Amino acid sequence: MFAPSVGIDGNKNIGITWQALTASLLYPGGLDVFFSQSSDGGKAFSPVINISDNIGQVETSPFIIVSRNGQMNVFWQDETGGNDQLLALAFGSGVSGPPQQVTPPSNLVVTPDQFGQITLSWTASPEATSYTIKRRSDSEPEFTTIAIGVTSNSFVDRHLQAGNAYYYSVIAVNANQESPASNAASAMPVGSIVLEDKIWLLPTAARSSGLSSSFFTTDVWISNASEAGVNLTLEFLQAGGQNNTEPPKSTLSLAAHETRSVPNILESLFGVQSNRFGPIRFTVPGVATDSVAIVSRTFTPSADEMPGTYGLAVEARDVTATGTSALGLVGLRQNAAFRSNVGIINLTDHTATHTLTLLNSAGATLATASGQLPAYAASQSSLINLFPSAANDSSNLDGLTVVVSSPDAALMAYATSVDNNTGDGSFVSGLPVQTGLPGGTHYVPVVTKVTGAFGTEWSSRLAAFNPGLETVTLFFSLHLPKSDNREVIPVQQALGPKATLVFSDVLEQLLHKASGYGALQVDWIASSGTAPIFSSQPATPAAGKTGTYGLQVDPVTLSHATRSLRITGVQQDDRFRTNIGFANPTNEVVSLSCVLRKPDGSTASAHSLTMQPLDYFQMGFNELFTLSSEPKSGEVMTVEVIASAPIFVYGSLIDNATQDPTYLPGQP
Description:
The chain is mostly beta strands. It folds into 6 domains: about 1-90, no CATH class; about 105-185, Immunoglobulins (Immunoglobulin-like), CATH 2.60.40.10; about 200-320, Hypothetical Protein Tm1070, Chain: A (Sandwich); about 325-430, Sandwich (Hypothetical Protein Tm1070, Chain: A); about 440-555, Hypothetical Protein Tm1070, Chain: A, CATH 2.60.290.11; about 560-665, TM1070-like (Hypothetical Protein Tm1070, Chain: A, Sandwich), CATH 2.60.290.11.
């Protein structure tokens, strides 16, 4: 609850209105206005209603004015880009409840065709301004929302699978509330559209020497969640600036539900012996585009000859239709303790020109650089080589941001931030600069300030970059473990144009907590319409020496929350241990079903959980699963999670010898 306003009408009815900062999945901006009223002096209130227009989704600054005739009038602001209008709703004297119920749509009819589509039509509701469409299939226990803001009384659901039955209902929506669901109707498409293959790109894989006698190698884990086998094509795009239109190729076949571990992938699949690195391109057949998850770990053995490794997780991303004009690499460091590298990949079949801009934390431009990359080429350089005048050996720079842009090509960019004392690296994803978004919500799946196993002391670094030319307002809310966090009061911060805000210990410095952990929700309002970019890194000091071991935890938007997710790369043996985290971004109680699958796809264990609204918790592998026998050494497994509402999940894989962690993102 934020910015409340209270009024009393002519019959002494009390009204209260407020702005909600807690995001919902239907309104990703999370900035709606709510109203409730009491006719008994505040002892009881009417059901809470959303009085926003459900169109702008970014509605703020509610206030109540009582007119001379005793009528209660609620005013609020619609701040959606281009709108900027004042809205109002009157509650007559003596009115103590919500407006009249919205009539549900009726006579819902669904019609399939031979192209994998189902057309919905219904009789309109006289009070409706828009409609919400819900659907479930035979394999889904509950309806989920597939469309909002539909303004006609028909809708076409596309890209459906032939032979599957689909069930639908429609809800009418107006400025005050939603109707009950319409009648349910079902249909089965006769045919299905042939889905195109998807291209996934693993930004970097290595079999190469580095600084301080390090030697990096890459292991890849691939899981197939479908009921059928799948054949993947892999191509190694060697870094160094050369044209990669005809790269070396290899293939992999995965059985249904199989998880495949590919150790030292450049040598084992492409014959690379030493000193080569670069991206790997995966072609995923159309029938399996939504069932394959790819995660890797690039690591080097401990420099001090201790058993164990230093590693960083690198996730493959879908680049089938990627196109962006600018990417941000946020929170980089260049000083005596840390060094940073920047990688750029040309995703197109022609030469691409690109520009790099180095910004300090205050938003000032320190230096620029430019270059060209041939078709599908990749390059990686240190900040010192890219910007020698700004990032030299004597610099002490923190909170750096590199903006990578190209006028004529789609690019992927990444950075590695490496601790000079331990050699441990963290992978920073290049995230697109997005415009036309006046508000939104990001989630950091975990932030921490706790004592862990083996005497480790964890804390979380958070960086936020504003690519726009106007100040962005940020609202931070910590969701504590196993709690209903709907009453959390957010902490507000301003982020200036082009500036990067850095908290080296976000729980202590921003939220003033000496200890604790949880998921961090960041709501934001951007008058310029340019969304902020975030990065996060939990870390622990290295045992017995200077330096840290850390892992990058990519903040995500609400669109990444889904009801079905997987964590690939799970290990629990003499070398590694795994923790699994869950974050519920919704205002409802969520039921979870967790299944642990062995590499061959068979079920090893299962566990059911319940989450409170806006809840978060993390569990150790042995807390979550009970096994009939210990996993084999080196056995790589996958955790599949099915939830009653969209959630986030993640894993952390920790080397028992060094305590160095690797982040395992939950993937749909």
